[in-house]
Each structure stands twice: as structure tokens, then as C-alpha cells.
Amino acid sequence: MVGNETVLRQPKRKPKPLDRTTLNDLALSYVARFSTSGARLEAYLARKIRERGVAEGETQLDPRAVVERLVELNYVDDEAYARARAGGLLRKGYGGRRVEQALRAAGIDDGVRESVSPGEGRSRRAALTLARKRGFGPFGSEVPDRAKREKQIAAMIRAGHGFDAARRLVEAASVEQAEEWVDEAAGEGDDAFG
């Protein structure tokens, strides 16, 4: 109620059941708005079919066939998606393990995930980015005590970095020492990212 007036709400209309054309339109609209993998697009379409149902007179709708058609047309490219997603996560400072988890959740197959897996150089740069961004180790305003160092190492591990890399950065004596450690591995196994 607003004041003494009763607000009448329109009942929610049930969306129209899907037919082939509407399913194709939903798929095209989705790939136009979002970068996605084939598996994610297929899950989205299957969910829409469950929510809205299938129109009368329509045979079974096949979201997999719609995805395959969009892959043929190069509207969906799992490898390009994986490269972009991996590169974005690494630039934010996430490590290889988090990249692997994100790509697995997106339904990217093993071969593609392996091909975009960061090399040692790229992994070290990502770790340095996170340390710099979060003020860990030599990038902080003060020398961390043991408890704070342990928390910083744990945060880097949660971000997908290995224990050795996290410890190396957090315990670096200076920014220069941390940067030298990264430079030692520059270019090692980073062909997937140019």
C-alpha cells in the first residue's frame, strides 16, 4: 500500500514456450552479449528449455545441435574463449591453478586447457602482479611479521599460486629481488600467450 491506495500488481506472465526459431534467437542473443564456451551456452539453452518448455507441435529441441551450428559458424570458439579467460585471470594476478579451475568450470576440454596453461614465466608475472596489487612482501608499507607473512602466503595460494612462488615473493628482501626472480623465467613456456 502506498498511503491509502492499494497498488495492484500485474501477475507475471508465463514466458512463451520455445520453438526452434526462438531457441536459435536465444543462443544468438547470448553469444552476442557474452563471451562463452560451448558447454556454458548449452547449459544456458537447456535451462531455458526447462524453464519455458517446448511449444506445441514442436519436436524435441536439441541445445547441443544449436551449439554445434554456432561453433561451425565460429560464433563460439572454446580455444579463443580459454585463451582470453586465462589471459584475463593471469593479468589480474591469479595463478595457474585458478585458471585451470575457471576453465574446467566453463566446460573447456583437457587438451585446450593444457594448451593455454601458463608457463613458468607467465605464472611468475601473475604472482608478482598479485603481490604488488595486494601489498604483499616487499610491496607493503612495512616489513610483515611471521603471522602476516603466513596470511599473505595463504592468500597467494588461494589465488592459485604454488607455495614456493608465494613464499619467494612474500619473503623477498626487496622489490628488485622479486622482479629479478620473475625476469629469470621470462619467456619460459609462454608461447600460448604471445
How would you explain this protein's 3D organization?
The chain is mainly alpha-helical and 194 residues long. The chain folds into two domains: 20-76, no CATH class; 79-193, no CATH class. Helices cover 59% and strands 0% of the residues. It is built from ten helices and no strands. It has helices at residues 20-33, 38-52, 63-72, 78-91, 96-105, 110-115, 120-134, 146-158, 163-170, 175-184. α7 (120-134) runs antiparallel to α10 and α8 crosses α9 (163-170). The termini are far apart. The model has no long low-confidence stretch (mean pLDDT 90).
SS elements, strand count: 0
The whole-number mean of residue pLDDT values reads 90
How large a portion of the residues is in β-strands, by DSSP E? under 5%
Helix coverage percent of residues? 55-70%
Poorly predicted sequence stretches spanning 5 or more consecutive residues: none
The tally of helices reads 10
| Broad structural category | mainly alpha
Number of domains: 2
Q: Describe the sheet with the most strands.
A: none
Distance between the termini: 61 Å
- CA gyration radius, whole angstroms: 24 Å
Overall 3D form? elongated
N to C succession of SSEs: HHHHHHHHHH
